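Suppose you are handed a protein chain with no further information: no name, no annotation, nothing but its sequence. What can you learn? This example shows the usual starting point.
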Amino acid sequence: MRENQKHIEAFELFYSLNGKMSDKNVREVSGKCQVSERTIWRWYKKLNWREKVDQRNIEISKGLMAKTNETVIDTKANYRAEIKAQFSILKKMLNELINKFKNNQGIKIKDIAGLKDVIGCYEKLIRMDLTLMGEVSVIEEIELKDAKEKLLSKINSIIAREKKTEGLKGNKKSKR
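A reasonable first move is to predict its three-dimensional structure. Written in structure tokens, the prediction is:
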């Protein structure tokens, strides 16, 4: 059977009724297309409407999936842009502290918790960025944790050295 415009219109109406063959749907299609119910049943079989419905549903699903993927990608890109902006702020803060320490300008660490918070934020941003890129693995998690522990250990030694230096300066002033 060759498909013509009348068949296409009948199929479109049938598809708009959820593409389910039922007595109710057959009556509605036959009434609007002005053909008998038996004719609609015959078109359904001969023109493979079941397969056409399945194929159209697959095509629609693919389109929805593409739009969903595009939305997810755009959302990830926006988050990554925010993360990069925050990275630059935290990097600047950490670099200023490191430079002051390297240049013996003396850094006063009054609150280790605040410094740990900055480092923790930096670590979380790294993890979020890697996760959004699909790159975080268990090994990287362990390496990141080890790096954090080493960094905190260095911070603690810097604090101890600073306190010792301040203690020595305090002793020299009291002897004078």
